[in-house]
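Box 3.1 — From sequence to structure: Protein YjdM
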Amino acid sequence: MSALPPCPKCHSEYTYEDGAQLVCPECAHEWSATAGAAAAEDGPRVYRDSAGNVLADGDTVTVIKDLKLKGGGGTVKVGTKVKNIRLVDSDHDIDCKIDGFGAMSLKTEFVRKVV
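Predicted structure (token representation):
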């Protein structure tokens, strides 16, 4: 049995070492063995927008890039304001509702906090 930690993303037990990195064969997530231990001790995750500003639940953000929606739902245009965001720990970090589109998930790299 391996003494390697499970994948922090999908919790798979089949991780393996690749040089200084640990790799999950199921979701292809890669992380540093030392960073994984330090991240678990640091506490809650800090979410940052594209400019490096710290995000919190309830913030208002604007979209910085045209985002095409899958399924032919249209396009969320640059400058669209999204109010009252909720941060979640998944691939898409923000759950929100956008007027005219409904509920959706966004990545923090495509938004900027409104100050």
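Summary of the box: Residues 33-42 form the longest helix (10 residues).
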